[in-house]
Amino acid sequence: MIKSWMAIAAIGVLVAGVGSALTGADIRWFKRLQRPRWLTFEWAIPIIWTVIFICGGWSAYLVWEADPGSQLTWVLMGFYLVLEIITISYTPVMCKLRSLTVGTIIGATGGLLSYLLGLSVWPVSIWAVVLLIPYMIWSPIGTYTTWAMVQLNPEDR
């Protein structure tokens, strides 16, 4: 039988893999954008997101293990999945549409959903909420960064 953590990890990797398809033109568009001078940590963003996704998967695992297969647990797993899809869609959707405003909206939506998910899993597992804190902290930073890039690249709103 497949362990719950294996299923959660496999779904996370599958969603991330599907969302990572970008063309060379998309990447070139994003790389040519001006960045705020204070964005000295761009090299760390992939590491930050890797930690956030691991924490999110672990959070989902704790929620699943608290009450495996219940209707509430399935609803919460759907919530985790929606949050991951929104998060993963940030780069490909923003780059395909060549719109930093769209990126800002997607980032803000992910941030809002992370807080709502945290409130939803609070009664199930406080540790699941603790594991969502990195997302809750980083999402506003990433969203603000994208918004700041809109100001520097008005032709790419």
UniProtKB/TrEMBL annotation:
Topology relative to the membrane, per the entry? Answer: Multi-pass membrane protein
Instruction: Indicate yes or no for the key word Membrane.
Output: yes
**Which top-rank group of organisms is this from?**
Bacteria
Transmembrane ranges, per UniProt, are 6-27, 39-61, 73-93, 100-118, 124-150
Stored Gene3D superfamilies: TspO/MBR protein (1.20.1260.100)
Record flagged with keyword Transmembrane helix? yes
Localization (cell): Membrane
Q: Keywords assigned by UniProt?
A: Membrane, Transmembrane, Transmembrane helix
Which Pfam family, any one, appears in the UniProt record?
TspO_MBR
The family classification in the record reads: Belongs to the TspO/BZRP family.
Q: Which PANTHER family match?
A: PERIPHERAL-TYPE BENZODIAZEPINE RECEPTOR, TRANSLOCATOR PROTEIN
Protein name (database record): TspO/MBR family protein
Give the species this sequence originates from.
Laspinema olomoucense D3b
- List the taxonomic lineage: Bacteria, Bacillati, Cyanobacteriota, Cyanophyceae, Oscillatoriophycideae
